[in-house]
């Protein structure tokens, strides 16, 4: 007589630490019977919500909401192994991955300011800059070589040194930024003075700044601005506070010379120094006119000083 195999199903419920429920069914058989065990895995994955990230910029708060990131569940199906007399069920493994929100990165912009200065010219230097330097020095009467070259030799060095001595600069024979700037300004003032003579005879007009008529400070204002040197409309007394003081022995063409016509020690007249003891200015009696300031019974005792404003 044959016996029927008795199969008993037993159920167990497992609750994991992360809240997932796993229900496992296992078949138990008589040891003498070969039985196929089946494992069924049901996985419930929790949903993870990430809080909005808030970024603050310069006092203004901007809230950006990050969409919830749902954990990714990777179920692994249990593997069923069939052996004689023994059933070993394998429980599915659940892996949960929670999305990560990264805070925004702040970028700082850096502005770099670059200052360009003139190239230092010295013995051995060559090129167009040397030719320009020699041309300017020749125009001013310092470079005496017959022709302009593009080589900075001892003749150029000596010319630069002579200019530096005349203008109160360090006499090292090298043309750096300060020396090149002073030379360029001297050339401009030379042209300004040559042009100023074309206004000789223009009448005097108190407060005047045009060719219809000038007063002394108005003429200075007109000439500088005509040659691209921006200058406010100063009175002669105000001009006496501008620039740097220049001794009489260091006077150079284009410097401003000041006088006290009233003879009370207060500045009330200004003109351009021309060189050779002469100056040009707007006189109430003659308009634009050139006068001697040395060995002059009128102007010499009224002279107060000089300033280099450019």
UniProtKB/TrEMBL annotation:
GO terms for molecular function: cysteine-type peptidase activity. Residues 1-26 form the signal peptide. Keywords: Hydrolase, Protease, Signal, Thiol protease. SUPFAM superfamilies: Cysteine proteinases, PGBD-like. This is Cell wall-associated NlpC family hydrolase. It comes from Paenibacillus methanolicus. Belongs to the peptidase C40 family. Gene3D superfamilies: endopeptidase domain like (from Nostoc punctiforme), PGBD-like superfamily/PGBD. Residues 186-310 form the NlpC/P60 domain. Residues 37-115 are annotated as: Disordered. InterPro entries: NLP_P60_dom, Papain-like_cys_pep_sf, Peptidase_C40, Peptidoglycan-bd-like, PGBD-like_sf, PGBDSf. The keyword Oxidoreductase does not apply. GO terms for biological process: proteolysis. The keyword Protease applies. The lineage of its organism: Bacteria, Bacillati, Bacillota, Bacilli, Bacillales. It holds the Pfam family PG_binding_1.
């Amino acid at each position: 007589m044959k016996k029927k195999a008795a199969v008993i199903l037993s159920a167990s419920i497992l609750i994991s630490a992360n809240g997932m429920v796993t229900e496992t069914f296992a078949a138990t058989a008589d040891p003498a019977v070969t039985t196929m065990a089946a494992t069924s895995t049901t996985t419930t994955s929790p949903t993870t919500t990430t809080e909005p990230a808030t970024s603050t910029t310069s006092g203004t708060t901007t809230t950006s909401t990050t969409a919830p990131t749902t954990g990714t569940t990777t179920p692994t199906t249990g593997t069923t192994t069939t052996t004689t007399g023994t059933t070993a069920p394998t429980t599915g493994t659940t892996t949960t991955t929670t999305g990560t929100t990264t805070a925004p990165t702040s970028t700082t912009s850096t502005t770099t300011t670059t200052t360009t200065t003139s190239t230092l010219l010295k013995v051995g230097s060559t090129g167009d800059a040397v030719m320009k330097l020699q041309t300017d020095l020749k125009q001013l009467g310092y470079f005496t070589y017959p022709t302009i070259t593009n080589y900075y030799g001892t003749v150029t060095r000596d010319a630069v040194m002579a200019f530096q001595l005349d203008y109160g600069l360090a006499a090292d024979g090298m043309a750096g930024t300060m020396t090149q700037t002073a030379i360029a300004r001297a050339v401009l003032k030379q042209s300004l003075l040559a042009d100023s003579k074309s206004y000789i005879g223009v009448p005097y007009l108190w407060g005047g700044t045009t060719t219809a008529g000038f007063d002394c400070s108005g003429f200075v204002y007109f000439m500088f601005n005509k040659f691209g040197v921006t200058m406010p409309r100063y009175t002669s007394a105000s001009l006496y506070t501008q620039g740097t003081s220049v001794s009489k022995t260091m006077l150079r063409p284009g410097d401003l010379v000041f006088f006290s016509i009233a003879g009370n020690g207060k500045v009330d007249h200004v003109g351009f120094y021309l060189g050779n003891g002469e100056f040009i200015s707007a006189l109430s009696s003659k308009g634009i006119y050139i006068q001697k300031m040395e060995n002059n019974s009128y102007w010499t005792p009224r002279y107060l000083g000089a300033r280099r404003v450019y």
